[in-house]
């Protein structure tokens, strides 16, 4: 008998919702909408409801056949109460999503954060299958990680474990979005690399990437890859530097956590294999020999659907929560 659930990755730019068969992790159907958070939180909640309604409608299932709804949001959440405490990217503060959605759909609803649902997805049905002690690292706009300990998400005392993007790799270094200085995220994320490139261009350095950027304000991972394929000097230099910093973060995870596996995903990792390979190679050299030898590195396998699949299992993670293990930020 299939066990159906609806998983939602509620992101700053898009909402991805899917109907998942929890027995085998299959995504049976999915819908995608732009979040358009500039229209305000009410609008975002409306889009969220619309996405769920569409999934239910398309599935032709009765709501009694859907076990639960799971949502991962980019921000601080109170997991036991299902409250979105703060999500700057969504313009939402203190919204009880659980209450709002349960009133609307009469399906038990659970809330987590975006990194944790992606880690659960990869652990259950992706590259992390079989590794009960592992870390999922996602390198994109920021750098986040989700920790699995003995087969469950490890939240830490107050729910903030896994903030690998904010370990300090350069004391007193570049300013970070968290208010601190020298954080890994300020050196090895896509946005950090982008800043580095635009800074150099402003200073008069030349790069082929300007041809790929055209009118785009953002430098995407794909543009960086294309420039790298042309052996562009500036891009190669910036990527080399970033992978060196990323390897510091990965070596720290290896030494501190001694995981069975580190699963890596996110735009930069997906788009630029050389960046991934170089980072893990250097991390293994920098870490202590024993944990370095036994840590397996793998790329995430579920792509955009890791969060959708993982969100469907927030219900089972929720059973293990202590009332105090709140809130979580990214
Ligand atoms: Zn920081």
How many angstroms does the end-to-end distance come to? 36 Å
Q: State which percent range the strand residues make up.
A: 15-25%
Strand order in space, largest sheet:
3-2-1-4-8
CATH fold description of the largest domain: Nucleotidyltransferase, domain 5
Assign a percent range to the helix content.
40-55%
Q: What is the structural class?
A: alpha/beta
User: What's the total number of strands?
Assistant: 13
The structural domain count equals 2
**For the residues shown, what is the average pLDDT?**
93
Q: What is the tally of helical segments?
A: 13
Principal-axes shape call:
globular
CATH architecture of the largest domain: 2-Layer Sandwich
Low-pLDDT residue intervals, each spanning 5 or more residues: none
Which small-molecule ligands are present, each listed once?
zinc ion
Major β-sheet, in short?
A: 5 strands, mixed
CATH class of the largest domain: Alpha Beta
Report on the structure:
The structure is a single chain. This protein has 330 residues and is of the alpha/beta class. The protein has 2 domains: 4-119 and 305-318, Nucleotidyltransferase, domain 5, CATH 3.30.420; 130-299, ATPase, nucleotide binding domain (Nucleotidyltransferase, domain 5). Helix content is 40%, strand content 22%. It contains 13 helices and 13 strands. A 5-stranded mixed beta sheet has the order 3-2-1-4-8, with helices on both faces. It has a 5-stranded mixed beta sheet with strand order 11-10-9-12-13, with helices on both faces. The longest helix has 25 residues, at 233-257. Zinc ion (ZN) is lined by residues 166, 176, 178, 180, 183, 185.
């Amino acid at each position: 008998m299939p066990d159906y659930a609806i998983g939602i990755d509620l992101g700053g730019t898009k909402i991805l919702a899917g109907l998942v068969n929890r027995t085998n992790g299959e995504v049976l159907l999915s819908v995608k909408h732009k979040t358009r958070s500039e229209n305000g939180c009410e609008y975002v909640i409306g889009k969220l409801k619309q996405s769920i309604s569409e999934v239910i409608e398309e599935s032709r299932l009765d709501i009694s056949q859907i076990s639960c709804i799971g949502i991962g949001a980019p921000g601080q959440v109170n997991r036991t109460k299902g409250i979105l405490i703060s999500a700057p990217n969504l313009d939402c503060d203190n919204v009880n999503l659980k209450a709002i959605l349960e009133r609307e759909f009469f399906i038990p609803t659970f809330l987590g954060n975006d990194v944790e649902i992606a880690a659960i997805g990869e652990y259950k049905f992706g590259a992390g299958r079989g590794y009960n002690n592992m870390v999922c690292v996602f390198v994109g706009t920021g750098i986040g990680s989700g920790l699995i300990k003995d087969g469950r998400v490890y939240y830490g005392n107050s729910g903030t474990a896994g903030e690998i993007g904010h370990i300090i790799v350069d004391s007193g270094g570049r300013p970070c979005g968290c208010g601190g200085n020298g954080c890994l995220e300020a050196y090895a994320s896509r946005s950090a690399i982008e800043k580095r490139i635009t800074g150099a261009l402003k200073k008069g350095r030349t790069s082929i990437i300007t041809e790929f950027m055209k009118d785009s304000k953002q430098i995407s991972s794909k543009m960086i890859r294309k420039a790298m394929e042309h052996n562009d000097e500036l891009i190669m230099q910036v990527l080399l530097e970033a992978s060196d910093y990323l390897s510091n973060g990965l070596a720290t995870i290896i030494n501190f956590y001694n995981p069975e596996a580190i699963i890596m995903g996110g735009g930069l990792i997906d788009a630029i294999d050389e960046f991934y390979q170089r980072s893990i190679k250097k991390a293994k050299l920098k870490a202590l020999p024993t944990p370095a030898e036994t840590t397996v590195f793998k790329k995430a396998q579920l792509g955009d659907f890791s969060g959708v699949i993982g969100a469907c299992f927030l219900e089972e993670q929720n059973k293990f929560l202590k009332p105090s293990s709140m809130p979580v930020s990214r």
